[in-house]
Design goal:
By secondary structure, the chain is an all-alpha fold. The chain is 66% helix and 0% strand. The longest helix has 34 residues.
């Protein structure tokens, strides 16, 4: 079989169309939220979108079983980079999230390429964790129900990655990594009772750690108080709710919002959904939510239509990764969840964020076109045969993937 025939599989065009709409609308919203402070932010975002589209296309073209082979190496490198970030990176606004700081001595280099000021390993850990956990779960099969081979090592994996991210500190990203990982474990066929107890233990540990961080404790206390007294909301959330309510049904019109002029903090990252609500009204908010719902439907449709365990699990993980982040951002901006600093995928400013999101989408689209047969599989097997990977063949099904047949 020729390589041309191998790569001629159809992919999910509807999913690609939804992502394109989200990307275009997100960029227009970012432009509207930042044009009054100059063109630097939206220029950089445009550059990162271009880079991310190329990366997503590469992820789409490379047969997805390759990432199963590279999962262990990717995770080891990401853990090393996370450790270096925690130990050696320079703090910025009370956190050490950026590995490469281009804001001082190398500012000119960063501005030359329009790439912003830093690379955030905590953000890259989300996609790397999805790939590694999918590969790890695909190798376990029926052993997932055994605490010794399933839940315990899985807890170590999640705890190690999320723990290093929390030390930056970046509680929201750590929480998203843990939630996505647990959802993948459940989907793969993990014992619900074990998952319940692990959630209780993990949730208690996370809560205790957050409570001992002054900034996190203040946010939690303020959020609990705001449940009975809306006036106790943080300034950002209160302004966000005000901006959305001022938009009414049809909004003020794109570019005509007023809350972004010094009233609404960080309009280009956390608060961009509030800008969408003010300028597009309830219609725009529902449209954005509907687009993410369609994204979730198509992503989980790819999950259920993929016959091998790794492909199914990685599609489930990427879809859940994007969906949980979007849901958390919207809930924070409407006062339904404690402030976290979570971005809105496809909308918020951020190079690493955009790169990981579109790379994940490219991989998801690659899974949607099916597993390559013939020459690609043979080449992969020959390439990896001497490595004696610990991962099982991805044709083996696990958990819910077994029961879909």
């Amino acid at each position: 079989m020729s390589k041309r025939k191998i790569q001629s599989y159809e992919f999910d065009g509807v999913l690609l169309g939804v992502v394109a709409i989200l990307l275009v609308y997100g960029f227009l919203s970012l432009y509207s939220a930042t044009f009054y402070v100059g063109d630097v932010l939206w220029h950089k975002q445009l550059v990162w979108i271009g880079i991310s589209v190329v990366a997503g296309y590469a992820m789409f073209k490379i047969p997805y079983p390759v990432w199963q082979k590279l999962a262990l190496l990717m995770m080891a490198l990401n853990l090393l980079v996370l450790l270096v970030t925690v130990l050696f990176a320079k703090p910025s606004l009370g956190a050490t999230r950026g590995l490469v700081d281009l804001s001082e001595s190398t500012r000119d280099l960063g501005n030359l390429f329009g790439l912003g000021s830093s690379i955030q390993p905590g953000v890259t850990a989300r996609l790397v964790s999805v790939i590694y956990i999918a590969a790890w779960l695909a190798s376990k099969g029926d052993q997932l129900s055994n605490v010794r081979y399933g839940l315990f090592p899985f807890g170590v994996i999640i705890g190690l990655v999320a723990g290093l991210v929390m030390l930056q500190p970046d509680l929201s990203t750590a929480l998203l990594i843990a939630v996505t990982g647990v959802a993948m474990f459940f989907f793969a066929g993990g014992d619900p009772i074990q998952i319940f107890f692990s959630l209780a233990i993990g949730g208690g540990t996370f809560g205790a750690l957050a409570w001992n961080m002054p900034h996190a404790r203040e946010r939690l206390e303020t959020y609990v108080q705001s449940l009975t007294d809306p006036e106790a909301m943080t300034y950002q959330v209160r302004r966000s709710v005000q901006a959305i309510s001022q938009g009414g049904i049809f909004g003020e019109g794109l570019g005509n919002g007023r809350m972004k002029f010094g009233y609404l903090p960080v309009t280009w990252t956390d608060s961009i959904f509030a800008v969408v609500g003010e300028e597009g009204g309830l219609i725009a908010c529902l449209l954005v939510l509907a687009l993410f719902i369609v994204f979730a439907y198509r992503g989980y449709r790819v999950t259920l239509g993929t016959p091998d365990a790794f492909g199914s699990l990685v599609a489930f993980g990427i879809t859940t990764m994007v969906l949980t982040e979007a849901l958390m951002n919207v809930m924070v901006m409407t006062g339904l969840f404690p402030p976290t600093g979570t971005a809105l995928p496809f909308f918020s400013y951020g190079g690493t964020q955009m790169l990981m999101t579109l790379s994940g989408v490219g991989l998801l689209l690659g899974v949607s076109r099916g597993r390559p047969k013939g020459d690609w599989d043979a080449a992969l097997d020959r390439w990896w045969r001497d490595g004696r990977t610990r991962l099982s063949r991805s044709g083996r099904r696990t958990g819910f993937a077994r029961h879909r047949a």
